[in-house]
Amino acid sequence: MKKNIFSLFFLAIIFQTILFSAEFRNGKFYLNVEILPNAEQIHIKSDGKLYISETDSPFQLNFFQPDLSIQLTEKPNSEAIWQVGIKKVSSKIEVENFVKTFPECYFEKTSEITFQNQTISQSAIFAIYLKEDFVSYEEAKSRCELDGWIEEKHTFLGNNLGSEILIYDIKNEEEYFLNAPFNIISDEPISVFQVPKSNFWNTKKYVDRTYAGNLKILQNPLGKMNLIANVELENYIAGVVPNEIGETVPIEAMKAQAIAARSEALFKILHNHHKDDEYDLCAGTHCQVFSGISNVNEKVKTAVNETAYQICIYNSKIVNAVYSNNCGGITTNSSDIWSGKSVPYLVSIYDGKGNSKVNLQSESNAKNWILGSQPVFCNTENDVSWKKNTYQWQEIVSKNRLEKNLNSISNFGKLKNIKITKRGIAGRILRMKIFGTENNIELNNELKIRQIFGDLRSSFFIFEIKNDKVIFTGKGSGHGVGMCQMGAIQMAELGYSAEEILKHYYTGIEIKKIKISN
To answer: Is the pLDDT assigned to residue 188 strictly greater than 90?
Structure first.
């Protein structure tokens, strides 16, 4: 085995510098998506030429059709610090005068993504901070003014760059050592092995995926590696659609999903969903499931191309176009599921023809709806595929398993009873109390309610405690806010257009085509 401590060479032709923050290039919008989090080892292959270089270095490693293993040599220690932001300004003269007047401050040049007049643009801004670092959030908060903000940052102890990362050329048995961050650029797609399929927080399945050849490796505060893809907006949407609604559904449903996914991505970027993470979005369910070019067929390309740069707009702002698998016949208010103000375009609607008003807050109404059959778009009871169980479902959980779950969070004891204390307008349980022999547990979060009973499809259920088991019978799959994907598919099969589908689920919105400004 050959070992190259610094076996790099300088290429006479310097390749295009890649900036890994959301940016505009040649009239297109590029974003950064975390595709592999907290890795200690990354395995990649390419059928073309591949170059690896440290971000600020003119040197590059050069490979042809490589098979590479990228590994941490050691886990560095890091510590968190908190910084206090004072304000942001667009004038360099203003910021320079400010730090002269207040020498306890300094500034950093950064950029900001904005949306105005149907145009996405990027502008330079200057962020002003206190020079002093704080060892806790509470200490930083005590020094933060009303209009200020707090940022958590991490430094690697003893080495601000972190530890060296090993690049092992499997075919040629050669080793190279680089410091993160570094870029990985290839003229052919790059295969990445053992990527979390959808849920980064609770990974149950890993898959191999292929991405366009523009990646970067960062070292995160845990000392591990994050693999980031730099991808153009429309290519990102193409990589989301097949994962979120499938690559064989009717084209109008696929187009509706593309517009919703594009709206959702831009909403998250504009609201700094991952602002402290050095990337814009993650590729898991926390943002939207993105698989690169792995599942992109011609039908997906057509749906994305025919809706290029189209988004949902409400009052001149981009819509938070959330969606779920099956609403169970009635979508729910966003304010019922997530705390905060009511969102006018994310209100409960009947998922069928007409303007029926349905209220399932009472136990009797909820039970009748769950046990009945409704003429709604998302009713898949007659489907013969997996879609059937997205509308009506039943889960049987043993009392022993449930008691283990409950005792893992509290000294609960044995299960005595379960009481539902509040349902939302769409019948989803918002609060409940579980009684044990040693303690009682109160839940007031829709997702936690689903999780505590073993990841139920939704919180729209009734239950029966019978001997040594609890029988849950429910409707819907997911949180039920916004677009119902099963309903969208059925609407498309009935001849509805993508625009009609979206306006059905997002109250009062418009579909507009945005512009990209350099």
So the answer is: yes
Q: If residue 225 lies in a helix (H) or strand (E), which one and from where to where?
A: strand 225-232
Which tokens hold the place of 30? 């590029």
Cα separation, 253 vs 243, in Å, equals 13
Neighbours of 177 (CB within 10 A): 16
Indicate whether 431 pLDDT > 50: yes
Q: Is 43 helix (H, G, I), strand (E, B) or coil?
A: strand
Q: How far is CA 116 from CA 34, 65, 207, 362, 490, in A?
A: 27, 44, 39, 43, 35
What do you get for the CA distance between the two ends of the chain, in Å?
Answer: 48
Report the range of poorest mean pLDDT among 112-116, 415-419, 499-503: 112-116
Rg (CA), the chain: 26
469-475 and 392-398 beta bridge pairing = antiparallel
- In the chain, the percentage of residues whose pLDDT exceeds 70 is 93
Asked whether the whole model's pTM tops 0.70, one would answer yes
| Residue 16, pLDDT score | 33
Which parts of 370-444 are beta strand (E)?
392-398, 415-423, 429-436, 440-443
